[in-house]
Amino acid sequence: MADSISSTCNLGFLDTLSETSIHEIVESYSAFCAATETLLNGAGDLSVGPQLVSHVHRLCSHGLESLVRDHFLGALERTFEKDGASKFWRHFEAHDDVSIGEQVFYNALEEISLEKQYQEKCLLMLVHALQTYGGRRSRDSDDVSPELFAKYQLSVSSILMATLPRKFPDILNWYFKGRLEELSTIMAGDEPRGDEDEDDRDDMELDEKCRVSYRSGQMEIDECNPQGRFFDNNKLVNNIGRVVHDLRSLGFTSMTEDAYASAIFLFLKDKVHDLAGDDYRISVLESIKRWIQAVPLQFLHALLAYLGDSVSYESASSGLKSPLAKCPASFYPGIDTPSEGLVRWQLRLEYFAYETLQDLRIAKLFEIIVDYPDSSPAIEDLKQCLEYTGQHSKLVESFISALQYRLLTAGASTNDILHQYVSTIKALRTIDPAGVFLEAVGEPIRDYLRGRKDTIKCIVTMLTDGTGANSNVSGNTGDSLLEELNRDEESQENIAPEDDFHTDDKQAWINASRWEPDPVEADPLKGSRNRRKVDILGMIVGIIGSQDQLVNEYRVMLAEKLLNKSDYDIDSEIRTLELLKIHFGENSMQKCEIMLNDLIGSKRTNTNIKATIAQPSHTDAGGELGDNRVSMDILDATIISSNFWPPIQEESLNVPGPVDQLLSDYAKRFNEIKTPRKLLWKKNLGTVKLELQFEDREMQFMVAPLHAAIVMQFQDQKSWTSKDLAAAVGVPIDILNRRINFWISKGILAESLGEDTDDHVFTLMEGMIDTGKNTANDGNCEDLIVGDEEGESSVASVEDQLRKEMTVYEKFILGMLTNFGSMALDRIHNTLKMFCIADPTYDKTLQQLQSFLSGLVSEEKLELRDGMYFLKK
Amino acid sequence: MKVKILLFWWHAVAAWTWDAQDETCGICRMAFDGCCPDCKLPGDDCPLIWGACNHAFHLHCILKWVNSQTSQAHCPMCRREWQFKG
Ligand SMILES: [Zn+2]
Ligand SMILES: [Zn+2]
Ligand SMILES: [Zn+2]
User: Fold this and answer.
1) Looking at residue A44, what is its pLDDT?
2) Contact status of A623 with chain B (Cβ, < 8 Å)
3) Quick check: helix, strand or coil at residue A224?
């Protein structure tokens, strides 16, 4: 205290004081101190007030105003430390745990707040005394009260902060968490009602008053207590409001805010997890938003209202509306115009909720896409979240690593990978209509698929084959992907908005939705706007690298299918071809069209020939062998324009004599009708339906001509050595040995070792009973067994064709590598392009070259290290 | 024990070809079994025709050739006066 005297009074002034003055000062000062002491410890007794005022006036008259203030503040501080803070903390000490019990918390807070309120009243008394000291007023017009109250507030906060127990923030957190849960429970059982309308006016006025009487940030002493209209008489909200108010007034403003904010965010996070769940067939975003409205925003609204911070500044807040608030007026149930603070809170909460939901969905994106399109509600949610947060890159990273881990593994079938790829495209194009992120996500899948041998085949099957393509998509079985794409396209064309498009634009848009034949060569400037649409077919063709390869593969598969047809029914092939023409252009599909046309022509010619051929005299129905002729009725033929078909696998075959006779009669008739055209039979191709008649049963089979030729040899001779049988049927012995397995597996023939070790003996089984392989064929002739042609195809595969075509370059490539040591793929490609310009011109794609080179690697002619090809030493 | 075999059908495959000496048309250089540059479908839609000199061409090719000649047309192969083989 001596310090403060010397610092505030100048010593020269002390010298002029008379003996009596000194005496009076000392006397007044000790009386003032005593009065202060009495007042502060008086437990609400303010009766010393007038005395205090007169002591203060006397001391002021000696210029000791600052001494008065400092002493009084010091006394307040000491009293608060003793009666306020330490008592306050003692409430919490009793409990080791954070959850101290709501009532204890309220009691502690009420006690210290009362103490503080009392001290503030005392301070107000001092302020009054200082203000009423007339002599000073004219010179010192400043109001001392703000400064004094600020000092007091500061010492209150410092004392509490200095003695703060470590667990206090956790206690606050616990408290708010508990209240939020309580509120949530109330709201869950308490749907919005409409009976509050008439209270609106009153509350508005209350709010207005409240804002007007609001003084300085932390020190509102007013008793204004507007309740959120949803919680009139609601003890819960009043309690929360009072708690926050009291905590603020004790200087815990930011600690309190942190506590309820983190309680709200934690609670929101739990709620989002809770609502989101693992069911992707329902959208949860709306319920999350509704919940934010119903619980945390109501909580905050009530809180801010209690603290006098709820009313908006009318139009000022409209610029801060949540971008998601479509109709702001009805958005806050029961709140007319949200305050700026509330809107800001809403934005924070929604952002947090969106981010949380987004992270949840991204983590499960792989499963969601497996479930697509059933999971489209979850995709739609994710889309909205990402639009809000803009964190698409999170999706890309996370999904790519899920793909690497779950899909792009040796165990996954090419078909599964392709289907997931297509589902990914379909699902993500909702989120990313421009396809930017899709490009990044698709790249690893495409790269992986390029390394698989059966990729093209699977792609073509998926595109064109209705039976297997969509088997895992519910409700869509029977449709090829191509069919589905086409349907999508048609429906998109139909709903193209009329008003927004000029006719030119509209045409451009329709064109853009068609696949462009060669994206590599397309001018990137030209189509940039039109290309901003995800093109599924284009992304599928992108796996292969070129449309030609895809068409080629399709042609081989089509040929295989057509050559194994026993009728001329090609309706579904025609439909598929039409769709392919739409996407790949008529010219690319020209050869396929001729192939189909051959089938149509064959049907006509076949009817014509059989109607006009001179039938031999005998008229037995059916084709019973044994006598030397068979009826022409059993023969049908597919006549192909072989120049337009893929290379046909030709194998020699001696068909049974009577059939051979039919073939030459047929060819002769063809030559008569179509002269000067003639037929060349591909005797190993086609299908044969026959019935084996045993004594006790009949069995029907649909088989290749070779199988038919083999089994028919057993009609007259029960047992054959493989050598003799191969000669009779006219095929090499290894082919015979391989193909005859079909009849052995069906239990029709038995194989045994002959006298010669490399010669086998095949014998017709007497009865079928002991083979155990005939359970399904107990004499029922309707049972038809179809010869499985696994690994036996009528048409040379695309790889075989390519290998044949590329062989001419093999020497050249090996020569280059001898000279250069090692070369990368594109360098080999470019060199071939540069030097092989004639006979035959090098016209292969990079992918074709790569596939050929990997063949050379597997033949151990080349080696591939770090992207460079070497000669194998 | 004997097995009897009944054939229900035999669906065979054949390729057609023009019964001509050469493989390609001397005018358009395309295969006879293909079609001329103006046609899309081979066979009946783009037939061959023989001249008196026994040279064959796509009908459409030789017709174009004959029509392009101002005077009497000659066979593009042997230069003999062109006559359709009767
Ligand atoms: Zn020609
Ligand atoms: Zn023609
Ligand atoms: Zn001639």
Assistant:
1) 65
2) yes
3) coil
- Tell whether B2 is covered by a domain: no
Q: How many domains does chain B have?
A: 1
Check whether A741 has a pLDDT greater than 50. Answer: yes
- Residue A492: is its pLDDT beyond 60? yes
Give residues with Cβ within 8 angstroms of A119, minimum separation 6.
A40, A76, A79, A80, A84, A152
Please count the other Cβ atoms lying within 10 Å of the Cβ belonging to residue A458. Answer: 23
Question: What is the domain extent for residue B69?
Answer: 23-85
Give dist(CA A732, CA A863) in Å, integer. 35
- Which residue shows structure tokens 């192939």? A595
- Distance of residue B60 Cα from the nearest chain A Cα, in angstroms: 17
What spacing in Å lies between the alpha carbon of B74 and ligand 3's midpoint? 8
H/E element holding A47? none
Kindly indicate the confidence band of residue A463, based on its pLDDT and cuts at 50, 70 and 90. Answer: confident
Cα B27 to middle of ligand 1, angstroms? 5
Order of all β-strands in the sheet with A749-753? A719-721, A760-764, A749-753
- Let me know if B79 is exposed, middle or buried by CB neighbors in 10 A (0-12, 13-18, 19+): exposed
- Token look-up 């028919």 returns A712
Is residue B80 one of the residues assigned to a domain? yes
Query: How many inter-chain contacts (A to B, CB under 8 Å) are there?
Result: 162
Pinpoint the alpha helices (H) of A821-845.
825-835
What residues of chain A, 651 to 710, have a C-beta less than 8 Å from chain B?
A: 659, 662-663, 666-667, 670-671, 674-683, 685-695, 700, 705, 708
Burial pattern A111-141, b for ≥16 Cβ within 10 A else e, equals ebbebbebbbebbebbbebbeebeebeeeee
pLDDT digits (tens, 9 = 90+) for A775-825: 444 434 344 666 655 556 777 777 777 777 888 888 888 888 888 888 888
CA angle A659, A663, A669 (to 5 degrees): 140
Question: Looking at the complex, does the CB of residue A640 fall below 8 Å from at least one CB of chain B?
Answer: yes
Phi-psi region of A139 (alpha: psi -120 to 50; beta: other; left: phi over 0): alpha
Count of alpha carbons within 13 angstroms of residue A735, beta-carbon side = 15
Report which secondary-structure segment, H or E, holds B37: none
A478-499: buried (b, 16+ CB within 10 Å) or exposed (e) per residue?
ebbbbbbbbeebeeeeeeeeee
Handedness of CA A557, A560, A565, A568 (dihedral sign): positive
- Please report which residue ranges of A133-252 form alpha helices under DSSP H: 134-139, 145-162, 168-188, 200-213, 235-249
ipTM associated with this complex: 0.95
Predicted local confidence at residue A354, as pLDDT:
92
**Helices A285-294/A253-276 angle, 10° precision:** 150
As a CATH number, domain A647-764 is 3.30.230.130
Q: Using N-to-C axis directions, what is the helix angle for A253-276 and A340-363, rounded to 10°? A: 40
Question: CATH no. for residue B59?
Answer: 3.30.40.10
What span, in angstroms and rounded, lies between the C-alpha atoms of A792 and A686? Answer: 12
Reply yes or no on domain A798-871 having CATH 3.30.365.10: no
In a domain, B12, yes or no: no
d(CA A1, CA A5): 7
Partners of A751 in beta bridges = A762
- For residues B37 and B52, the answer to whether their CB atoms sit within 8 Å is no
Specify the residue for token string 């669906």.
B11
| pTM tops 0.80 | no
Cβ contact, residue pair A694, B1, below 8 Å: yes
Neighbours of B30 (CB within 10 A): 19
Burial, A73: exposed, middle or buried (Cβ in 10 Å; 0-12, 13-18, 19+)? middle
Residue B51 domain flag? yes
Length of chain A equals 873
DSSP string, A636-697: EEEEE-GGGSPPB--------HHHHHHHHHHHHHHHHHHTTEEEEEEEEEEEEEEEEE-SS-
